[in-house]
Structure formats: C-alpha cells, structure tokens
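#dry-run=false #mode=assembly
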Amino acid sequence: MSLQLEIVTPEKKIFSDTVSDVYLPGVDGEMGILELHAALVTALAPGELRYLKDGTVHELAIGSGFAEVTQEKVSVLTDSAFGDDDIDEAAEEKAVARAENKLVEVTGKDAEEAAYLQDVIATSQARLLLKRKRR
Amino acid sequence: MANLRDIRRRIKSVKNTAQITRAMQLVAAAKMKKAQDQALAGRQYADQLNQVLVNLKENVDEESHPLLERREGEKTLTLIISTDKGLCGGLNTNLLKLVRTEETEETTYATVGKKLRIQIEKTGNENIADFVIQDPVPFSEARPIAKFLTEQFLEGNYDKIKVCFTNFVSTLTQEPYCSQLLPIQADKLAEKRAYEGVGKDEVKDTDHAAALSKDYEFEPSPEVVLDTLLPQYLNFQIYQMILESRASEHSARMVSMKAATDNANNMIDDLTLDYNKLRQAAITSELLEITTAMKAME
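#status=ok
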C-alpha cells in the first residue's frame, strides 16, 4: 500500500511522503482517498486534513484550495497548512474576531470581500478546532 | 597635483564610502538569499496549479468564464512592479524602457514600488493605483492587487491587463518582462512561463502527456472548480511576479554594491600610491633644501 501525498502552499512545500490513506475536507464534505482512487480534481474547503502513516493519524489544518488525485498520488494545493504545533491559539482567536468585525462592515456592500472574510474565518476556526481537540 | 592634506582627506572619504557600500552589499546578499529561496519555492506550486488548470480546460467551455473572455478593445491597464529603493544598477531603467516600448495611446498604469511610480507620474501618464508591499512578501498582500485588477477588468474599464516586472534568471542576470494577466489565455496555460524558471525564449510545455491521458472527475463540478481556481491562479501569478521582482532587486543591488566596493578599493590604492609619491617628493626636496643650506653655510 503506498500513496504519495504532497501538500504545497505558495510559500513552500509543506509535506511530501508516502502515506496509507488521506482524508480531505472537500467543499461538499469530507472524502477519504485510498490507493488506486480514480483520477479526481476537487475543490477544498478550510478544514482538517488527516493522513494515516505507519498506523498513526496526523492532522493538519488547511485553508481553501484544491486537490488533484491520481491512482498513486494526492497533490494538495492550499493557501496554508498548519500542524498542531504551529497554531497560535490566541492569534487565531484575534484573527477571527477581527475578520468578523470587518465582515459586519462589508456585508451587503462587497460580496467578494465578504466571501474572502468568511474564508479567513473558516480557516482560523479550522485551526482552532484542531488545536482544541488535541487537549 | 593636489597637496598631501587634500589626498589624505580624499582617501578618508573614499574609505567611508567603501564601508557603506560593503555594508549594503552584505545586507543585500542576506536578503537576496531569502528572496531567491522564496521565489524558487513558489515554482513548485505553479507547476501543480498549471497541471490542474490544463486538465480542467479540457473539461469546460473555455469561453464561458468572464475572466477568459477576449475583447476587441485595446484599452490596457499595465501594472508595473519596480523597487522602492534605488542603488540597484539598471534594474528600473531597463524595466522602464520595456514599459515604454509596450506603451500605446490607451495605456493606463498602476504601480508597485516607488521608483517607477515617480517616473510614471513625472511624465504625465495616468497612474490609477499604487500598492506598497512589505519585504519579505506575504502571500496575503498579493490578493488586494489581484482583486483590484480583476475588478477593473470585469467592470469593463479596461480590455486587457498586463503586468511588467523583472524576471529573475540568476544572480547576475535579470530581465524585464511584460505578460498579459487578463483575459487569461487558456491556450497558453500549459506553457511554462518565463517567471517559472525558464528563460524568455525557451517556453516549453509542462509535462502533461501522462496527466492528459487520464480521465479526471471533478468534485463538485468542473465549473465550480474553475470558478474558485481562476481567482486563486491570479493571486498566485501576482505573488510570484512580485517575488521574482524582489529576488531580482536584491541580486542586482548586491552585484552593483559589490562593484562599487571594488571601485572604491581600487581608488584607495591609487590615491595611496599618489600620496606616498608626494610624501617621498616632499622628503627629497626637504633633504635637498637642508643640504643646500649646509653648503651655503660653509
């Protein structure tokens, strides 16, 4: 069983290794990918990406993005990907509060900006969720 | 020939200059390393994104999306990415030259970086927006720029959006480059562009033969994926172009500061030689005077 998982952000390559299975936060819900999955391109929502390597589950909080799945490889392109240790809880809480304030301001005026802010909030909340779950 | 004190003073001032340029060289070298790494890291993402886009365009009606729509008009908005600071060789001059050759009657500008903004405004061209970007460049700062340009295009204010920036080839070579951002040229998506690490003339296909033979499924649908992917693609394009410009800037600055330091050191050597010659001449003539005086006394 081998499935190559690659996670890339515009800033750097976060992860590249063989894993046994991957769970992606798709826009329509979570999807599990095993080896020999049919070729697939999917949009990803901010959320939790899990992969199983050597029997242990690893988790990353990712932003919105895309995944390309082929039989032997999963490439994830996302704005950001954070592991448990990289998340600063206080900073994320502040970011959520800030974005929420701004969201109230722009709602109804600038649909695109509002969509972006919702995305920011969802990303931060995905990180917080991951951080808190671990405690 | 100048007198001793003048030469001494000049040596001192050139030494000071050399010290400053050397410090600038070291600072630029450190920043260059970071900027280059950042620019190179982005290329991986670019490759992946291209591959997805190529697969995608086989599956959707290419003309259907507003960002892909080609228009007849020639009204162009050009975004110029220059530097905030000078002392980086001919970087901005070369870029400006290219910008001028691309310029038509219907060109309007937007700028990143102070140097060319000043130039553009001085010559009376219209500059509709100016963006300030931190160093090192965070990805989030590319978004407002992409958003602004996209809006201008979608509202029909302009028919074409171009970006002019300096492409980073190597530490010693940087070349100015203009590329069309909007409408997105679907037929060119598959090509590697200059700022993705290949030279200007060797535009080549990314390796898609294998990928294309596969039948992709799209989740939830090709249209939705395209809708979210294109803005992402634009953000990333802008981000990568800024990175390339930054890497070029720091490289050019390091090289020109190194040249300046070398020149200053040469000058110090020459001046020291002159100084010693003059000093020797002075001693000789002093000795002569003493001997003459002694002879006269006898």
